[in-house]
Amino acid sequence: MRHASMLGVLVSCAALAAVSAQDQAGCEPDGDVQFICGPVSPEDLIAVPRTPLVIVASMAEEGHLYLADTRDHTATVLFPAAGARIRHDTVMYGGCPGPPAARFQPHGVSLRHGDGDIHTLYVVGHGDRESVEVFWLDMGGNGPLITWVGCVIAPDGVGLNSVTALRGGGFAATHFAQPEGEVWEWRRGLGWSVVPGSTMSAPNGILVSDDGRWYYIGGWGTSSVVRLSRGREPVEKSEVDVGFQVDNLRWAPDGSILAAGQGSDGQYTVFECVGDGTCDGLSSRVARVDPDTLAAEEIVSYPSNEHVILGTGAIEVGNEIWLGAVGGGTRIARFSAP
Fold first, then answer.
1. Residue 155 exposed, middle or buried by CB count within 10 Å (0-12, 13-18, 19+)
2. pLDDT tens digits for range 22-56
3. How many distinct structural domains can be found in the chain?
4. Nearest to residue 217, comparing CAs of 256, 168, 254, 163?
């Protein structure tokens, strides 16, 4: 078995296909709320360190990864793209059958920051297989360049949702299930294992502390953010009720956690809303959570509409909060940060 195989060619940023340059005909603000238009169902967002770029996961049937530019608010296709590289690391990811085929359908994303310009990108995929797809992202002189290097197939019966990179290699991912899901870790040579104490109703977003001692988990089924100890006995677990169904989590520049999700007045469930396209009574929410005290403060509440149907993931970009959403919309909402 070969250590690596290469297909495709290098591609420069200028050669990538531009999706939307804030289309003046159909991307007008909604009052004080502004938008980035283009990516379909932009479920998760994560900033690329030391750059003005944000990775966007388009959770559509034939979804893509995009790069959104914080300077001009355009969105650009990153993967799959004609010039993306394929270099299968069969030593690290020998159990992977090969690169994604016709359907990619990305979901949660996570970045392991490199010391230089090359980072490792983990992406939950639901297309032709249930997996975590792994990429190198090169932001150097010819970048951005993306290279698919492997995948890890999910355990039988596990539906992955969000992923977070772990120190020293490997990653953890949530199994979104009701009434009981859990967190799984994967490491080379050890494979998958369930994180002790992680069983809960519909775990969704996930982060790990810089020192690797704590998980922070979005409790979609419990409307809470859960803090769970990692690698110690007895397991320590605490949570804060944020008043809405928590989807993705993301670190803010000040060290706090941004928890995004959906709230309801009881008229509809989230699944009914997505099913028939009627979302009156639902809203997209964002709360800021202190990782030490678990104190929570809601900072965004935006009624569901044709622009943003169900908010899923938020990041802080300068003096703005960016909010991605699912449901078939093609906008990332931009709110003034409190």
1. middle
2. 444 579 999 999 999 999 999 999 999 999 999 99
3. 1
4. 163
Residue 62 lies in a domain: no
Question: Is 269 among the domain residues?
Answer: yes
Q: What span, in angstroms and rounded, lies between the C-alpha atoms of 268 and 309?
A: 13
Q: What tens digit of pLDDT does each residue of 58-96 get?
A: 998 888 999 999 999 999 999 998 879 999 999 999 999
Tokens 């899901």 belong to residue: 181
**Whole domain around residue 255: which residue ranges?**
247-338
Peptide bond into 52 cis (omega under 30): no
pTM, whole model, 2 decimals?
0.91
CB atoms closer than 10 angstroms to residue 72: 10
Sheet containing strand 331-336, strands side by side = 34-37, 331-336, 320-326, 310-317
CA-wise closest residue to 52 among 38, 30, 68: 68
DSSP assignment, residue 274? H
Query: Is 119 inside any structural domain?
Result: no
Nearest to 257 by CA among 331, 316, 332: 316
List, in order, residues 6 or more apart from 31 with CB less than 8 Å away: none
Distance CA 127, CA 104 (A): 5
Task: Please choose, from the candidates 288, 327, 293, 287, the residue with its C-alpha nearest in 3D space to the C-alpha of residue 309.
Answer: 327
Tell which wins on pLDDT, 101 or 188: 188
CA dist., res. 120 & res. 135, Å (int): 6
Query: Is the residue at 29 inside a domain?
Result: no
Please answer whether residues 145 and 188 qualify as being in contact, where contact means their C-beta atoms are separated by less than 8 angstroms: no
